[in-house]
Amino acid sequence: MGKIDDFRERIDAIDVNILKLLNKRATFALGIGHEKMKAGKNNFHVPHREKAIFKRLEKINTGPFKNKAIFSIFREILSATLSLEKPLTIAYLGPEGTFSHLAGIHEFGKSVLYQPQKSIEDVFKAVEKSMTDYGIVPVENSIEGTVNNTLDMLIQTTLNVTGEIIMSVSHYLLSLEKDMEKVKKIYSHPQPIAQCRSWLKENLPRVKIHEVSSTSKASELASKRPFTASIAGIATSKIYGLNILAKRIEDSANNVTRFLVIGREMPQKSDKNKTSLLFSVKHKPGALFEVLSHFAKNNINLIKIESRPLKNKKWEYLFFVDIEGYYKDIKIDKSIAEIENSSLSFKILGSYPMGKEV
Q1: Are 156 and 40 in contact (CB under 8 A)?
Q2: What is the value of pTM for the model shown?
């Protein structure tokens, strides 16, 4: 046991040093916050700075910790430090345990204040009315496509897209029951139901499916009603005390959801950025080609294009476009000016650090 005791003593000594260094780091961070206040700045949360920290740590990490573990540790250090300066408040599609909530924790850590909202519209309103600092909303899924409610709100809002979270999503069948054959009714949000359609048809073809506002709401209902189950994330099984009847029931192993972070200010440039635009074009041949040609001419990578019908005009469309780069970059700034000239309406939705899949 002598060698084990020696290792433990060394670990204890390292823990003391880690604690001292964490508090020293926090002191310097508070100093930065104090200087910002003196200068009249209130941007305590600086996304591009956080991304730079994570990128630098990835480069110098030699293990045995994997970069994902290092990210998790420093995510909480940054979150706890920020809470000393100014606790952030984050609106999300609730209740607790939804994928939007988990995406928020990944982006902001556990030391911020999370405020669940009943709808995507309510998330936008909470940020617009300064009830929260940021909001988290789902915008697209790799299987089921775009979340139209989010697109509709992006058309109307004055807020900016300030970040994105690309999260791998797994669905579980959860219930008070211990035997799947006893389940007579399943609750879930429409998106997970669609993502598990083939599995449900094969395994529970006669069970009634009932749509609700969120996966957490589904698990809450399943926790109160016998012979029912929810399709939800594993986190809700712990929150509501449910048994796991089946794991990873999504039809595709590559089930990824992209979430947007919305806020009131445009982020500063990061090392790798994405810019989201919205425009409409004249109803004439070649109008869309004319707009898109500006991207090709200026050598800009077009990542995504999505159309949405105009509600007040038949057969006319708004186009949502994601491009690679920051909106103040010379070639993008030039393209934006040209596109605005060629469009009936135009809006920059946001220019923000490009997310990585987690």
Answers
A1: no
A2: 0.83
Q: Which residue has 């009847």 as its token pair?
A: 245
What pLDDT is attached to residue 315? 59
Cβ atoms 177, 253 nearer than 8 A: no
To 5 degrees, how large is the angle CA 223–CA 229–CA 235? 65
Domains defined along the chain, listed by start: 2-85 (1.20.59.10), 89-169+256-262 (3.40.190.10), 172-246 (3.40.190.10), 269-353 (3.30.70.260)
Cβ contact 332:141 at 8 Å: no
| CA 337 to each of CA 307, 331, 343, 348: distance values in angstroms, whole numbers, following the listed order | 21, 10, 10, 11
**C-beta of residue 327 within 8 angstroms of C-beta of residue 333:** yes
Q: Which residues contact 290 (CB under 8 A, 6 or more apart)?
A: 281, 342
- Residue type present at position 166: I
pLDDT along the chain (358 residues), means of 10: 85 94 92 81 76 91 92 90 86 89 91 92 96 95 86 93 92 95 94 92 94 91 95 93 95 89 92 93 83 90 88 75 94 91 90 86
Between CA 44 and CA 30 the distance in angstroms is: 10
Residue type, 15: D
Tell me the torsion sign for CA atoms 143, 144, 148, 149: negative
